[in-house]
Amino acid sequence: MFQFGRGSRRTVGLDIGSSSVKVVELDHSGSIPALVKFGRCGLLPEAIVDGEIMDHDVVVDTIVELMEANEIASKEVVAAVSGRAVIVKKIQMDVMNDDEARDAIQWEAEQHIPFDIDDVSIDFQVLDRETRPDKMDVLLVAAKKEMLESRASLLRAAGLSAVTIDVDSFAVQNAYEQNYDHPEGTVTLLLNVGCFVTNVNIVRDGVPYFTRDLSFAGNSILEAVQKDLGVDQDEAAEILENPGEERLEDLQSIVGLVGEELAVGIEKSLSYLRASGEADHIDRICLSGGSSFAPGLRESIEKHQGSPVEIANPFRNVSWEEGMFGDDDPEILGPHYMVAAGLALRQGGD
Predict the structure, then answer these.
(1) Which residues of 53-80 are buried (b: 16+ CB within 10 A; e: fewer)?
(2) Across 230-322, where does the E strand assignment appear?
């Protein structure tokens, strides 16, 4: 989206989340992307809260540690942002060429963005010039300059530079489209459940029809487990990671109940699309993020939406050398790297 430099055959995606930092390096010289390196490093609690960097030095040190531990030599990375300071909206404009649209987009953005236009960076992509003779669909993306500069400054402090700053939801879509078939007309709900934010993206034929961030996320599940089982945060995290047979039923019940909030957010998103006549149902749901395997979450989503839910693997259609994952299962690790892999799929000019 927001371009700052040039890419190369190798691209490094850096996902700076609220609980950990993830990195993926892909080589694009072959017929399909090849996984070169990947890794993650946990962040101290509250180093990043609701997307806001609270402890700059801790985050910088974590990024440096991650890059060094995984021996990633490139100093150019693709990063991403999300949250309240990012606006993604599909709008209609009079039909015009790209140069004319670039001149007109500033005025159009003022009609749709609840921020001072001088305080945001704007990008756009024309989606459809064919449906109507006089109008075209345009994807408008705006992010506060202050947030973009904060992210770029953070990377500079870690000795890196941002080739592109993307949006989390678009990175998830990149990873999904690389690894999964998406038949024409199929409406897919992409859910990336992070620590504090869940990225929602409803996609049809490669077009993001509705994108938003929900406050329900992994931390909501963690807090519910703490409260219902009467344990502290560390114990709750351990129980979620290794529930055992004796805790599994209780956890599924807890996650199912707290997942009602996610179901409401999804239904509001779908209601918007129904009202606009763009989609009236969800054909498939792709779940990713660090909380993908929370006991009962997948089943809860399927129950409320009535559509099959698949846990995403961004390494499904990516090659790698034997032994790269060691004893770990890429199907289990994959959901954690959905954003980082999607970022690494971006190449210069994308």
Answers:
(1) bebeeebbbbbeebbeebebebebbbbb
(2) 284-288, 309-311
- Classified as helix, coil or strand, 166 is strand
The domain at 1-83+145-180+313-350 falls in which architecture?
2-Layer Sandwich (3.30)
Give the residue among 207, 142, 157, 205 at the shortest CA–CA distance from 55: 157
By the 8 A CB rule, do 78 and 167 touch?
no
Question: Cβ atoms within 10 A of the Cβ of 229, count?
Answer: 14
36-64: pLDDT as tens digits: 999 999 998 888 876 778 899 999 999 99
- What region, left, alpha or beta, does residue 49 occupy, with left being phi > 0 and alpha being psi -120 to 50 degrees? beta
Nearest-angstrom CA–CA distance, 103 and 122: 12
CATH number given to 86-143: 3.30.1490.300
- pTM for this one? 0.91
* Residue that the structure tokens 């487990």 belong to: 225
**Phi, psi dihedral angles at 292 (to 5 degrees):** -55, -40
